[in-house]
């Protein structure tokens, strides 16, 4: 099975490395040999950590890249355009697609999945929400019997990494530099190419928007999710939270009540009984409640080269297994028909005011 990869940065190199390192294992699991046929990048001058097989074309020319005629197109480049055009081109020319691009799915998921449906092709996206932590699978497959009522998660590793460092500083009394911690998150491959997307809360809001579509059948525009970033959280504020037996986490939450979907993506005081409190550094955690399964919780490595590649490659293996029988499209997880709920701010008027101090942060106790 021929695989072509757009993007050979943090995630793309992890994917290529796993595909080469575990080739015999993956063939055993899928009964199909997987071959990396072509890789598309912006610049051929950039130094890479991972070597590609000699038979693979590494190119900055989209036409040469697509001439490799992939069975599976993997998009780990990011951004809206040209990723949108590339995915559409792949789907309409008969390839199945695996992507980690939450910005694109949050903005154009409905339209891209409709194109995939029309052409009987798979569009899978497990890595787009919570990296290596199975968030989309958990909701759509494992909890598929449930009427979901709440999803609440720590969905951005960079923010959680910074907040954990601020907490350690608050506990130890040692100073922590926000800028140095963000630079470390970038070095470790957690942050987006533009880290403002992380610290402003945007990345987490995009992931929450995707979860709203798959959990509640209600696609939500990330711009409509009440949002605050973490830029205003200081070691002093974190110390104050600790004094009150809380920690501060960037919490993405959506709760359905009747025909309303209450949503919020904000730094939140997380209390002692919540499992989300134990999710530290670049880890992510997701708590889901449904009518049959009152509580399910997953956590683990959510960002960085190999945790993200883990989810991307798992999608590749599923597509490889099912494509042979022409049923890879059954892996698609975007709702075919939607049941739009009216969205509203999760916070009430009292707590919605501009967040300036501890007393204005929302609280999660359990
Ligand atoms: P990255 O390190 O910046 O790598 C992006 C790669 O895409 C680079 O190789 C770049 O080429 C290539 N690229 C960008 N625009 C392109 C274009 N127009 N044409 C061809 N190639 C292009 O980013 P990343 O961290 O791997 O993230 C990739 C995607 O995965 C993003 O959608 C991100 O949101 C998502 N994701 C990342 C993580 C993570 O932990 N990093 C986790 C989950 C999801 P050059 O190398 O030549 O510049
Ligand atoms: N930049 C993202 C984060 C990558 O820090 O969570 C994982 O989606």
What do these coordinates show?
The protein is α/β, with parallel strands linked by helices and 366 residues long. Helices cover 36% and strands 20% of the residues. It contains twelve helices and 13 strands. Strands 7, 8, 9, 10, 11, 12 and 13 form a seven-stranded mixed beta sheet that branches. The chain has a six-stranded parallel beta sheet with strand order 3-2-1-4-5-6, with helices on both faces. Strand 4 (72-75), helix 4 and strand 5 (96-99) form a beta-alpha-beta unit. Mean pLDDT is 94; it is low at 352-356. L-homoserine is lined by residues 131, 156-158, 190-192, 198, 203, 302-303.
Spatial shape: globular
Report the biggest beta sheet as strand number plus sense, adding barrel if it closes. Answer: 7 strands, mixed
Radius of gyration: 21 Å
How many DSSP H or I helices? Answer: 12
Structural class: alpha/beta
Low-confidence runs of at least 5 consecutive residues:
352-356
Q: What's the end-to-end separation, in Å?
A: 46 Å
Helicity level: 25-40%
Q: Beta fraction of the residues? A: 15-25%
Number of strands: 13
Q: Which ligands does the model contain, each kind named once?
A: NADP nicotinamide-adenine-dinucleotide phosphate, L-homoserine
């Amino acid at each position: 099975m021929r695989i072509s990869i757009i993007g050979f940065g943090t995630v793309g190199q992890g994917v290529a490395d796993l595909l080469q390192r575990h080739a015999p294992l993956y063939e055993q699991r899928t009964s199909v040999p997987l071959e990396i046929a072509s890789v598309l990048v912006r610049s051929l001058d950039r130094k890479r950590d991972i070597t590609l097989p000699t038979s693979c074309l590494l190119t900055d020319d989209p036409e040469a890249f697509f001439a490799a005629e992939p069975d599976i197109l993997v998009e780990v480049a990011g951004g809206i355009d040209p990723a949108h055009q590339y995915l559409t081109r792949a789907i309409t020319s008969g390839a199945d697609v695996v992507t980690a691009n939450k910005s694109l799915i949050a903005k154009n998921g409905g339209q891209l999945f409709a194109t995939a449906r029309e052409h009987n092709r798979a569009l899978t996206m497990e890595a787009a929400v919570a990296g290596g932590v199975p968030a989309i699978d958990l909701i759509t497959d494992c909890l598929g019997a449930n009427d979901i009522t709440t999803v609440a998660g720590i969905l951005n590793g960079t923010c959680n990494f910074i907040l954990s460092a601020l907490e350690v500083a608050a506990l130890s009394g040692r100073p922590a530099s926000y800028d140095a911690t963000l630079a470390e998150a970038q070095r470790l491959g957690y942050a987006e190419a533009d880290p403002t997307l992380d610290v402003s809360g945007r990345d987490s809001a995009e992931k929450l928007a995707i979860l709203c579509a798959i959990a509640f059948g209600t696609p939500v525009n990330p711009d409509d999710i009440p949002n605050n970033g973490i830029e205003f959280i200081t070691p002093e504020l974190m110390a104050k939270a600790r004094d009150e037996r809380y920690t501060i986490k960037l919490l993405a939450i959506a709760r359905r009540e009747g025909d309303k979907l209450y949503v919020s993506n904000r730094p939140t005081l997380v209390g002692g009984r919540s499992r989300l409190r134990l999710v530290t550094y670049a880890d992510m955690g997701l708590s889901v409640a449904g009518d049959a399964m009152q509580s399910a919780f997953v956590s683990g490595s959510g960002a960085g080269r190999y945790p993200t590649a883990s989810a991307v490659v798992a999608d590749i293996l599923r597509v490889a297994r099912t494509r042979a029988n022409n049923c890879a499209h059954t892996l698609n997880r975007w709702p075919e028909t939607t049941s739009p709920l009216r969205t509203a701010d999760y916070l009430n008027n009292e707590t919605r005011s501009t967040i300036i101090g501890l007393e204005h942060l929302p609280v999660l106790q359990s």
